[in-house]
Amino acid sequence: MEPFDLYSPAIDADPFPAYARLREEYPCYWSDSAQLWILSRYDDISRAAQDWESFSSTGGNLIDELPGRAGATLGTTDPPRHDRLRALSMKAFSRKSVEQLVAPTLELADRALDALLAKKHFEFVEDFSSRITVGLLFRLMGLPARDHNDIRRKVILAVSTDKKAKGRTREHIDAFKSLADFLAAEVAERRKTPTDDLINHLAEAEIDGDRLTEREIVMTTATFVMAGVESLSSFMSVFALNLHDFPDARRAVVADAAMLAPAIEESLRFNTSAQRFKRVLARDVELHAKVMRKGDKVALAYGSGNRDRRKFPNPDVYDIERRPQGHLGFGAGKHFCLGSQMARLATQTAMRRFLERIPDFHLTNGGIAWNSSSNFRSPVALHMAAGKG
Ligand code: HEM
Predict the structure, then answer these.
(1) Is 1 a member of any domain?
(2) What is the pLDDT confidence band of residue 201, given thresholds at 50, 70 and 90?
(3) Among 141, 136, 138, 146, which residue's Cα sits nearest to residue 102?
(4) Of 11, 310, 355, 374, which one's alpha carbon is 20 to 30 angstroms from that of 69?
(5) Is the pLDDT of residue 92 over 70?
(6) What per-residue confidence (pLDDT) applies to 196?
(7) Angle at Cα 363 formed by Cα 108 and Cα 341, nearest 5°?
(8) Across residues 145-154, what is the average pLDDT?
(9) Residues 339-388: pLDDT tens digits?
């Protein structure tokens, strides 16, 4: 049996023991079943993420890439094109525009909490985290409000993997196409009637004297929707689960809201929702006596680097006092998460409100199913009720 089988359902539920084995025994590991290298130690991942000239993103950063993305968007280009695309997008994610999302987050959180507290049981992902993230993302991007369940379902399908087929199925690709079609219609609309929002900035902007193509605008917008909705909603859910699993941490955060920020940082280290991203080698690279060849795929296992004892002492202990510097929960290097400030602020704001109104909660059905994905780790659903179990 492989020490790390990316396509085993067990890896979605708990990748951490297998990561530990890779770090100690196979730090530069060729996976036959996934046909890629896996880097698992903090220093190696961090160095590879900085070295975009060797570890290129132009072949896509999703391990099972989606049609049309490679080479067209932020996560799938290298400098210098990436730098310009990123500078353009940064405008929408400036500290000021992100801070303007606090009031809408509170409003969305209160509305979600009113509805879920009216029920005996609730489902955290559908009733809270995805409702807030889809609402916020769509507002930030100037997209018309949509059924959050429909959007989340499509996004989840688009980033899911069929473990048996070792890749995407028709259903996954169709969900992505339907999302892209909806965004393409929005882009076309902006061309007719320009508005002051992110999509329009992308449509109007010039890079190297050229306008972005329709495909680049749609794929960049789709990246924001997928990264925002999947990573943020999943991370909020994982954070809620950590507060459930570690009641001392929950009590500390409830007693002092200032502890929310360090608790979020520790959860980003302990179990980030964005576990692994892909690069393709632009040249041969030798590491730990293995030669990785130009053209080979490499997975940077951020979630494993965050548990490396060489960087973080007692890495498997969840400690909200840790304040982990340089964790890889948002990646590293040129592709460091563009939405990190927004993700931190939205999680902090939404969860502060959640804990004010529901300081104690429990899971109502013990087992948790995890989404099937080669990049991300997130619970399919978290069935909960307020109060002690
Ligand atoms: C807690 C929630 C989030 C986590 C854990 C997360 C994690 C990550 C990670 C690890 C990367 C690096 C990908 C790589 O190395 O190829 C990344 C990139 C990115 N993230 Fe996030 N993300 C989160 C929320 C968001 C949000 C809310 C947005 C905003 C819409 C966003 C937008 C992006 C974009 C655009 C990139 C690509 C940046 C680039 O390539 O220059 N993320 N994210």
Answers:
(1) no
(2) confident
(3) 136
(4) 11
(5) no
(6) 78
(7) 40
(8) 82
(9) 999 999 999 999 999 999 999 999 998 779 899 999 999 999 999 999 98
Mean local confidence (pLDDT), 125-133: 93
**pLDDT at site 195:** 80
d(CA 304, CA 328): 9
Does position 138 have pLDDT exceeding 90, yes or no? Answer: no
Residue 243 CA to ligand 1 center (angstroms) comes to: 23
Confidence of residue 22 (pLDDT cuts 50, 70, 90): very high
| In the chain, % of residues over pLDDT 70 | 99
Strands 206-207 and 290-292: unpaired
Closest CA to ligand 1's atom 9: 330
Measure 377 CA to ligand 1 centroid, in angstroms.
Answer: 14
Which atom, in ligand 1's list, is nearest to the CA of 223? 35
* CA angle, residues 369, 374, 375, in degrees to nearest 5: 100
> Looking at the domain assignment, is residue 127 inside a domain?
yes
Q: Pairing between strand 28-31 and 36-39?
A: antiparallel
Residue 361 CB–ligand 1 contact under 6 Å: no
Q: Check which CATH number belongs to the domain holding 232 and give it.
A: 1.10.630.10
Cα angle for residues 166, 73, 69 (degrees, 5° grid) = 30
Closest C-alpha among 7, 2, 1 to residue 372: 7
pLDDT in tens, 263-278: 999 999 999 999 999 9
| Domain contains 338 | yes
274 CB less than 6 Å from ligand 1? Answer: yes
Considering the domain boundaries, does residue 3 fall inside one?
A: no
Task: Give the tokens for residue 52.
Answer: 């975009």
Distance 87 CA to ligand 1 centre (A): 15
What is the domain range of residue 148? 9-386
Rounded distance from Cα 224 to ligand 1 centre (Å): 8
Q: Is 128 in the pocket of ligand 1 (CB under 6 A)?
A: no
- In total, how many domains does the chain have? 1
